[in-house]
């Protein structure tokens, strides 16, 4: 963002003009959401504060009863200009009286440490007493690039991101500090290295399609047939043409359309994976962690087909240092599996996922309340706002099956990971509260239908 701002300024855009645009964008959103309800704008010492002075002036000009409270002097040239243009009184933050609406223009991307306790307490008190509150650019106290909270951060109604989303807008816990997120265009083209996961555009099969052309998936099961059966069932309802569940010979648990095969011995499994029509092979859910499971995983790793590795497969891989996985694979670790596989990497969840993908040469879905999808070539997508009801047994198996199914359909691991994660979240939204993993599978066709 800073580079983009500097580039705009170098290209001749007057820096104060950027602040006027930022302040005007914030004022417009406050006006639409809050109308003429009385407003107190809290202005910090930097340009975030400057944005606040601009917004206060413009809202007052629209007849909104606006007061401004400042945290000390304005330290930048632009914010001093904005302050001078505000022709009303400026109260000290420490003694400012409450208001119906609060605008947090204390700190933005320039925050370098947590707020002093008295400042954090004032911000919490004023937003707590308000009926609605807005954060300009970022809630004050969040670390822009990691989403960490450097001090106590209240919850805001609307966060108005300026110019582009920053990682803190999408990564927890910062992403839980506001109810709604709006990104205001201020004429600065920030190259979005990080994308918010968008709803995919899906397509129906072509008239000439048949079960192999739509994508054949194999799922290597193990001891816990329920997990691999869930994954197989999810793959079958993901748009793939056919799914073979290769287990240890346990009785089939899925629908009749799911092909149950027995491949207990590693060489039996290897023989079944030699089918060149296989477009994706999933191993992990219910695989087990004993020597037989390890031997079966070896057969999967050697089969030469695009792989999805989840759960036990990641645990077994984690035993041997940096995992050597075939190119074009997708790994789906949760936090514990990620650290076990890649160690304690520095930086934000985005940085860590990107580094892991680069190291293993595969797409990584770093799961969590905020899931980050990273490709070896540096592309990153973040999915936040997933239903907290997904924290129930088996939803990871369903996601792994979805990834394998979409990989079989698209042949593109990054795209498959994005589509699968979105469909997983959409199925959860449709399943409503207190669902179990099996309920997600029943919602997949509708989740796909709404994106055709
Ligand atoms: N294209 C854009 O995104 C634009 C963004 N604008 C706004 O500018 C801020 C960033 O401004 P900056 O002056 O760099 O930093 P802040 O306003 O966030 O203030 C930091 C300021 O405060 C000092 N400081 C840092 N941490 C603390 C602390 N814990 N306690 C006290 N003081 C602290 C620091 O030394 C700085 O002096 C961005 O968020 C946008 O709102 C432009 O106005 C328009 C274009
Ligand atoms: K702010």
Describe it:
- The structure is a single chain.
- This protein has 452 residues and is of the alpha/beta class.
- The chain has 2 domains: 2-191, Rossmann fold, CATH 3.40.50.10260; 216-449, Ribokinase (UDP-N-acetylmuramoyl-L-alanine:D-glutamate ligase).
- Helix content is 38%, strand content 17%.
- The chain has 14 helices and 17 strands.
- Strands 8-17-16-15-14-13-12-9-10-11 form a 10-stranded mixed β-sheet, with helices on both faces.
- Strand 13 (307-309), helix 9 (311-318) and strand 14 form a beta-alpha-beta unit.
- Helix 2 crosses helix 3, helix 9 packs parallel to helix 10 and helix 13 (413-431) packs across helix 14 (437-449).
- It is elongated, with a radius of gyration of 26 Å.
- The chain starts with a helix and ends with a helix.
- The mean pLDDT is 95.
- Bound molecules: ligand LP7C6HRI and potassium ion (K).
- The site of potassium ion has 11 residues, from strand 4 and strand 5.
- Residues 194-451 form the YjeF C-terminal domain.
- (6S)-NADPHX binds at residues 47-51, 108-114, 137, 227, 286, 334, 397.
Bound molecules: ligand LP7C6HRI, potassium ion
- Number of discrete domains: 2
Low-confidence stretches: none
Helix content: 25-40%
Q: Radius of gyration, rounded? A: 26 Å
Overall SS class:
alpha/beta
Mean pLDDT: 95
Largest sheet: 10 strands, mixed
CATH class of the largest domain: Alpha Beta
Binding site for (6S)-NADPHX: 47-51, 108-114, 137, 227, 286, 334, 397
GO biological process, one term: metabolite repair
Binding site for AMP: 367-371, 396
Domain YjeF C-terminal: 194-451
């Amino acid at each position: 963002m800073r580079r983009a701002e500097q580039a705009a300024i170098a290209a001749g855009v007057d820096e104060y003009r950027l602040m006027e645009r930022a302040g005007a964008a914030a004022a417009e959103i406050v006006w639409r959401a809050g109308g003429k309800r009385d407003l107190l704008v809290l202005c910090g010492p930097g340009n975030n504060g400057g944005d606040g002075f601009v917004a206060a002036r413009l809202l007052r000009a629209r007849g909104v009863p606006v007061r401004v409270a400042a945290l000390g002097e304005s330290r930048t040239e632009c914010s001093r200009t904005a302050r001078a243009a505000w022709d009303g009184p400026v109260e000290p933050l420490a003694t400012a009286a409450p208001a119906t609406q609060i605008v947090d223009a204390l700190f933005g991307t320039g925050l370098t440490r947590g707020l002093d306790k008295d400042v954090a307490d004032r911000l919490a008190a004023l937003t707590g007493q308000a009926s609605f509150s807005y954060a300009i650019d970022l809630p004050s106290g969040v670390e822009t690039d990691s989403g960490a909270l450097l001090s106590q951060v209240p919850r805001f109604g609307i966060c108005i991101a300026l110019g582009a989303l920053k990682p803190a807008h999408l990564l927890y816990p910062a992403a839980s500090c506001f109810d709604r997120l709006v990104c205001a265009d201020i004429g600065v083209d920030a190259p979005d290295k990080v994308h918010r996961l968008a709803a995919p555009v899906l397509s129906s099969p072509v008239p000439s399609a048949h079960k192999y052309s739509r994508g054949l998936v194999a799922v290597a099961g193990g001891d816990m047939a329920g997990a691999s059966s869930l994954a197989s069932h999810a793959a079958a309802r993901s748009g793939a043409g056919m799914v073979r569940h290769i287990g240890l010979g346990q009785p089939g648990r899925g629908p009749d359309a799911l092909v149950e095969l027995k491949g207990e011995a590693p060489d039996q499994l290897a023989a079944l994976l030699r089918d060149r029509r296989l477009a994706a092979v999933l191993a992990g859910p219910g695989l087990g962690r004993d020597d037989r499971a390890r031997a079966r995983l070896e057969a999967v790793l050697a089969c030469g087909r695009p792989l999805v590795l989840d759960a036990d497969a990641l645990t077994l891989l984690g035993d041997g240092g940096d995992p050597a996985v075939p190119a074009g694979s997708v790994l789906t670790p949760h936090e514990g599996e990620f650290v076990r596989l890649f160690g304690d990497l520095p930086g934000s969840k985005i940085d860590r996922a990107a580094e892991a993908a680069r190291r293993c040469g595969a797409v990584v879905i770093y799961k969590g309340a905020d899931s980050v999808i990273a490709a070896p070539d540096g592309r990153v997508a973040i999915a936040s706002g997933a239903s907290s009801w997904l924290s129930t047994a088996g939803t990871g198996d369903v996601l792994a099956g979805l990834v394998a199914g979409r990989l079989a359909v698209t042949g593109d691991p990054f795209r498959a990971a994005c589509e699968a994660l979105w469909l997983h979240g959409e199925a959860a939204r449709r399943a409503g509260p207190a669902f179990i993993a099996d309920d997600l599978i029943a919602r997949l066709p509708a989740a796909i239908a709404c994106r055709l």
